[in-house]
Amino acid sequence: xxxxxxxxxxxxxxxxxxxxxxxxxxxxxxxxxxxxxxxxxxxxxxxxxxxxxxxxxxxxxxxxxxxxxxxxxxxxxxxxxxxxxxxxxxxxxxxxxxxxxxxxxxxxxxxxxxxxxxxxxxxxxxxxxxxxxxxxxxxxxxxxxxxxxxxxxxxx
Length: 156
Known about the structure:
26% helix; seven-stranded mixed sheet
C-alpha cells in the first residue's frame, strides 16, 4: 500500500468507491467538485494497492497555537475491506502529522454505529473520548445520528 497525492484521473475511481453503499452510508453523496474542490481545506491522499486506487484519506489542521490539532477521515473500497488498509493508512498519516507537521493531538469522529471503522481506529492508537449526540445528518437528510469522538494524543 502507498499513500500518494491525488492525481488527474483518480476522480472516476474515487467517485465509484464513494458511491458504493458501504461507503456512501457514512460519506453521503459526493459533493460537486469531488475530490478536488468540495473540501479545499483538506489535504487528500489516494490509498493505492498494487497500482489500483483503493480509497482516500484526508486530514485537516487547526493551526491556532492555542488549539493546534489535526483531524483525519477516510474511506476504503469495500473490495479491500478486512485487510487492515484503513488502519495502516491512518497510522501513516498519524506519523506524518506528528513527525512532519508537529501535531500532538489528532481526532477522528466516526458514526457510533460504524463499528468496523472504530475498531480500525482503535488498532491505530485512537481512544474514545465521548459520544456527540445527534452529531451528523443521516444520509438523505431524514434524521441525525451520533458520532464517537476519538483522539490520539502523543504521550498517552
